[in-house]
Design goal:
Blueprint lengths: L4 E14 L2 E14 L3 E5 L6 H9 L6 E6 L2 E2 L6 H11 E4 L11 H12 L7 H11 L15 H12 L6 E5 L7 H16 L3 E6 L10 E6 L2 E2 L2 H6 L5 H10 L1 E5 L4 E3 L7 E7 L1 E7 L5 E8 L3 E2 L1 H5 L7 E4 L5 E7 H10 L1 H25 L1
Parallel strand pairs: 3-8, 3-9, 6-7, 7-8
Antiparallel strand pairs: 1-2, 1-4, 4-5, 9-10, 11-18, 12-17, 13-16, 13-18, 14-15, 14-17
Helix pairs in contact: 3-4, 3-5, 4-5, 10-11
């Protein structure tokens, strides 16, 4: 993966108007996806994920905001025809229902994008298309019509077509939604391979199990993005609860080396790390510090004290050369969240037990 942005959405709003009035689907989305990432976008029906995808592809216009893809502003200077031609050269789109032309063979379907953007010599296109069909295991079906192959093979052909112009970005809308588990596994393996080769893959999915195969998961709820650190730290919350934490938690910065909690200090807050790292530290022999553990983005601290007495059992400080950033929930909000999610309460209870044991062991070592 590269830290170079492939997709940047800046305060993107999308509002639809009908006879009943206005309905805002996207509510000020800020999002950066980097080159080489394999990203899953998840959310319930009506959450805005397909609309978000349409903003990235240039298929639909934002009501407000800016969309930059591969260093090109999609809406500032291009008209529809220019945007369509740009998309053909820079982006491969894989649809849930394949969208293969039924009267053309798989080989001819894969050649279509090359014809549209006039890419590769005319005589070279069949060879290029065959290489792509071979890549997805369809070389023996190349001359068959879409109706003559399975749904999994049709989706594989759609992926070959999306790769026809060798675009740096592939966008897939529910690419496994109509496939059996075996066919879906083949498709995800192919996406992983393409990401390993440096392509950026953005996939909308309803299937939470697929997010275990991606390098990053974006959750959208009611037109807003859940903070990724919240989703990592508290994965058993539902999406609305995650969004509530994202919107209500206070954001703080801890400078490198700064102590945010002292041992025996009263603790009244729960902390989720959103950037950087912190060390959990115990005082050792002759006042030497014993580092119990290191916590990074998507991990948390403060839960032991909130559930077991209120005073910090160790010191916590930002570690490394860069500051740490945290989301902070007050005690009552945190405890109310646990009541709303018994599975989260149970999981955090087990973490509390483990951390208490770690601290006891460190305390014994330090004596």
């Amino acid at each position: 993966m590269s830290a170079t942005p492939m997709i940047e959405l800046r305060k993107v709003v999308k509002t639809f108007k009908n006879a009943a009035g206005e309905f805002t689907v996207l509510k000020g989305i800020d999002l950066t996806l980097n080159k080489g990432e394999f990203v899953a976008i998840v959310g319930k029906s009506g959450s805005g994920k397909s609309t978000l995808l349409n903003m990235m592809t240039g298929i639909d216009h934002p009501s407000r905001g800016q969309v930059v893809v591969n260093a090109t502003d999609l809406y500032a200077r291009m008209n529809e025809s220019q945007r369509s031609l740009w998309r053909g050269k820079n982006m491969g789109i894989v649809f849930q229902f394949f969208q293969l032309l039924p009267m053309l063979s798989l080989l001819e379907n894969v050649m279509l994008p090359m014809d549209y953007v006039n890419m590769y010599d005319f005589d070279e296109r069949p060879q290029r298309a065959m290489e792509l069909l071979t890549l997805v295991g369809l070389e023996k079906q190349a001359n068959k019509l879409p109706s003559a192959v399975s749904t999994g093979q049709q989706q594989a052909a759609a992926i070959a077509r999306a790769l026809a112009t060798d675009p740096p970005l592939m966008v897939a809308d529910e690419p496994t939604g109509n496939l059996d588990s075996r066919s879906a596994d083949i498709i995800i393996n192919l996406f992983q391979s393409l990401a390993d080769q440096g392509k950026t893959i953005v996939m909308v999915t309803h299937d939470p199990s697929l997010t275990q195969r991606t390098s990053r998961t974006i959750i959208i709820s009611d037109g807003e993005l859940v903070d990724e650190a919240v989703a990592q730290a508290l994965p058993l919350l539902n999406h609305r609860q995650m969004l509530s934490v994202t919107k209500t938690a206070q954001r703080r910065r801890i400078e490198a080396g700064q102590t945010v909690l002292q041992r025996d200090q009263h603790v009244d807050e729960f902390y989720i790390i959103t950037a950087g790292a912190v060390e959990i530290v115990m005082a050792g022999k002759q006042r030497e510090d014993v580092v119990v553990s290191r916590l990074e983005t998507g991990q948390f601290f403060g839960e032991v004290e909130l559930l077991r007495g209120g005073k910090s059992i160790a010191s916590v400080r930002a570690t490394g050369d860069l500051p740490a950033e945290v989301l902070v929930l007050p005690r009552e909000t945190f405890l109310d969240l646990l009541k709303q999610s018994p599975l989260t309460e149970e999981t955090i209870g087990k973490i509390v037990q483990r951390r208490l044991e770690e601290n006891r062991s460190a305390d014994r070592r330090g004596r």
